[in-house]
Amino acid sequence: CEPMVGAGAVLFDILNTYDMDEVLINDTNAELINLYKIVKSQVELLIENLSILENDYLTRNETQRKEYYYNQRLLFNELITNPNDKNALMRASIFVFLNKTCFNGLYRVNGKGAFNVPIGSYKKPPICDEENLHAVSKALQKAEIVCGDYLLVLEHYAKPGDFIFLDPP
Hints:
By secondary structure, this protein is mainly alpha-helical. 52% of the residues lie in helices and 6% in strands.
């Protein structure tokens, strides 16, 4: 059980090392949790979207890339104001795109909740890592994925005898 999964480094190391019957991951970042759910259940569609975003981005010059990045950031911010099942795949796709192309892979929002990280200066960022996405999808198949405060997990999901990795930010 990982109540603050973030990037999931410990989670994926454990899942690659041990055969687990039950796994629960949680985070307060709703867009991160949305991404984990999409990777688990719709990895092929996510790969299709990321391949398109990667091709669109990498075939542009530096000025065009900057414009493309900020347009995607604007679209992402519009989508996260009304998250729903219909836009979940697109939000996850743009979330990955922004993570791979923004400054240092940061996820930061302003006081209004809008993603506000500037573009990074990568020459050829790996936006669609198909092999890794398939591996992560496979690893997440036994995972229950929830979004909320870590106390939610500790109070309502964790049971005596569970291994709980609590690594606060």
